[in-house]
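Key idea: predict the complex, not the pieces.
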Amino acid sequence: MSEPLLKVQNLRIELSLRDGIAPVIDDLSFELGAGESISFVGESGCGKSMTALGIMGLLPEKVGRIASGTITFDGEELTTVTQKRLRAIRGNEISMIFQEPMTSLNPVYTVGEQIAEVLRAHQGLSKSAAWNCAIELLDAVRIPNARRRVSDYPFQMSGGQRQRVMIAIALACEPKILIADEPTTALDVTVQAEIFDLLNELKRQTGTAIIMITHDMGAVAEMAERMIVMYAGRNAEQGPVEQIIDHPRHPYTKGLISCVPHIMATLNDERYELTEIAGIVPPLREFGQDRCLFASRCNMVSQKCLDKRPPEAIFGDGQRAACWHAGAI
Amino acid sequence: MSTPPIIPMQETPKARHPMAEAWEMFRGNHAAMVALVVLTLIIITAIIGPYIYPTDPFDMVWAPFSPPGVDGFLLGTDYLGRDLMAALIHGARVSIVIGVAAAFMSVFIGVTVGALAGFYRGWVEELLMRITEFFQVLPTLLFAMVIVALFGASLPMITFAIGVVSWTAVARITRSEFLRIRELEYVTASRASGAKNGKLMFQIILPNALPPIIVQAALMVGSAILFEAGLSFLGLTDPNVVSWGQVIGSNRQYILDASYTVTIPGIAIFVTVLAISLVGDGLNDALNPKLRQR
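Result:
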């Protein structure tokens, strides 16, 4: 296989807190091929969004920094590149859409201006060319009557439409990677499905690789080919989606999957009790410890788990699970 | 059997432009609307008045201390026999120009300082805010007097002096708005699409920070007019141009004998500044989304 589009190796991102430094991302490695789509899954506070911000070089100033590891994009090392080059990459080759469509558009500009702005900055299009392109993009993200809506302000649009505009902005320059940070969390279910369809279709058309960050297992199954389950800043398990859902090798993944409710076709079908994963994600200051951080919530915990951080056990088809008991699950 | 009543289709309320909503709000504020009309009249007078009433305010046209309405002079004459009506009309220009120019200048300095401090944080913020505090603790009138006394009492210098002593409020407002807005998601989103710092500051954040700055600027026009009047009252004024403050200043010795020479320009200043304040207050209500729901 040729060199992957994005290769993250042994990434460690540290946040400085009042009581010391915490590694919010601890020894994370993954690869993303061109046109592929992967999903990051995990509870809140597991470092999913931090990974995305780390790749974009948008970690909170003076608080977060990449301590070690490499992020190689298209042969270029992003951790050492200049700010200027990084700005040229952002929005042009890697772009991002955010969780809150209600607040991620600038309220004082029309959506057309905001789409056109990216095109003018990165592709050097003229004002009128960029405007026409913005209309086409709105049409591509299936906003009806794009020619008229292009001069609407964000407040004149619904949440779903705003997220479509965000997608239009993100895809304006046909980036190689699109990072979607919980793109549908703030939207209702039917709109969610539409946004997923749209993303899938645009991915087919443009060949953009997608990194989806979510806590919704359903979204993963719908969107991604491979998934990375994160827990407390560490990789818990990664591999092909179907294989993992079929046979998770990490108790955390197993727990996440069993949390998803299933809709029964008939009321007489046997219904499973919904399980939950007891406990919460450990506080940030415990993140760096040399033990299994999931141990406190795990029902398979043994002495080994408390003494030493588990190495990644490797299974077929690139499935890897960081658990001492992975083989037994 | 009767036909069922036709229920009229409910018109869905269309989301309206924020500026349209602000104007609606402003229109509902009667004091502000009256003030806006008064202010418009004053500005029109300042612009076209001198052509309609071309009497030179420095010409001695009649005997001194002729009371208002006597001898054909609507507002009377001052201690040198100069027409007060002419002084009032011609002086409007200077007072308003100084007010607006000084407000512009302090907005310019204040926005620049506040934007840099609020955007870059860290040592830039520390340094700029200490400088702001330094200017804040200086007694403003005294400081302006020193500048005018040192560099000469010309119109640009008076404007400069007023601007330099009154930008601190704008800087603090701008900084606080920047601190709030820079953390909002659309700023991160712009950053994520590759915007440079300059663009983030002045094209993304500043337009969203404008409403309170506009209100402050409007109020500052009023206070600059007062400031200019204060300086001219103390004699720190350009002797070659007439302004309301200067008329008060030059007639102040005769305040007991011919009080109208001081009262009339005083009322002009009072009305103008009050109108500006009321308009500024109306703008504040109209542009402040928290008040809009009341």
